[in-house]
Amino acid sequence: MRGSDERSGSLFSYVDLEARVRSDHPLRTIREIANAALTDLTGEFARLYPPRLGRPSIAPERLLRAMLLQAFYGIRSERQLMERMEFDLLFRWFVGLGVDEPTWDHSSFSKNRDRLLEGEIAAKFLSAVVARPKVKRLLSSDHFSVDGSLLEAWASIKSFRRKDGDDNDRDGPGRNAERSFHKEKRSNETHRSTTDPEARLYKKGDGQPAKLCYLGHALMENRNGLVVGGSVTLATGTAEREAALAMVDGTRRSERRITLGADKAYDVKEFIGDLRGRSVTPHIAVNGHQTKTGKRRKTAIDRRTLRHAGYEVSQHCRKRIEEVFGWIKSSAGLAKVKLRGRSRVDAAFTMALAAYNLIRLPKLLSALT
Fold first, then answer.
1. Most exposed: 63, 106, 176, 268, by fewest CB within 10 Å?
2. Residue 178 to residues 76, 149, 161, 279, 294, Cα–Cα distance (Å)
3. pLDDT of 242-295, one tens digit each?
4. Which residues contact 25 (CB under 8 A, 6 or more apart)?
């Protein structure tokens, strides 16, 4: 029998959100781990939100859950996120909003989110996630990989102007006025962006265009490819190696020897020496390219490292870190960051790393049972 297309209504209606989400939905596992990590951050939230008079703000736990949904589903803006939360029962259930509770204004959400990110909560949330007993048994404590990737800044190349103000062109019609770079030599020493002064003009390889950007760094354990540390720095030629040392120092909990895999950009004598001084075996890809003079570059990796079978294993595993950056840029929407300032970009990037871990955990945990 053909069903009716007429809309039926009732005087009273009750919707149980818990019953509307199927029992095997991946977000159930994610929400359980995220809530446990948020519970560990209760003291941090108390310091960030001291008791005072006035209207209560958006609960920080709900803010963070909403930010996770934004990364999971690739929602481009806070306005779209609030619109989705208005009608999507799954979103309301995950965040903790009842069916009858109003959603927040997108500007209020952005303001409260920025306040939360300024408290370095994103990095602490990532640490709390990987510290959960369920997650900890998935992690390797001996073998890691590191890499960095460019994050394009939320600034136009036209905003890259001389610091002394000597290159101000005449304003044209509209907001997108013409900008002439003819016969002008630009560098980070003499120029900076008027839109995002902390962004740097940088290119990561030959033949690639220079862009205003930051450098995002991730430290990955090699057993299941989960991220255990991350940060954003200014884009410089030495930032990747400096960030790698900082992440190793911040992640290690003992003096036992570990291995660190990385690509050939890390094959630098000073960096290898710094790793060995920290009891870290450098499983770095050999950079033996031919120089402009025709000579083969001398690598800093010696035979005592290359002869071990573990070196080949690390070289195979380290490439999985590209999956992290690929997901963050394509799915989480950080191909071009929509925040300005290194600290805010750092918080958004670290939150995306936590989201990457969480979205992989349901399948990894189910394989253990």
1. 176
2. 28, 30, 13, 54, 43
3. 999 999 998 887 788 899 999 988 988 999 999 999 999 899 988 877 777 767
4. 90
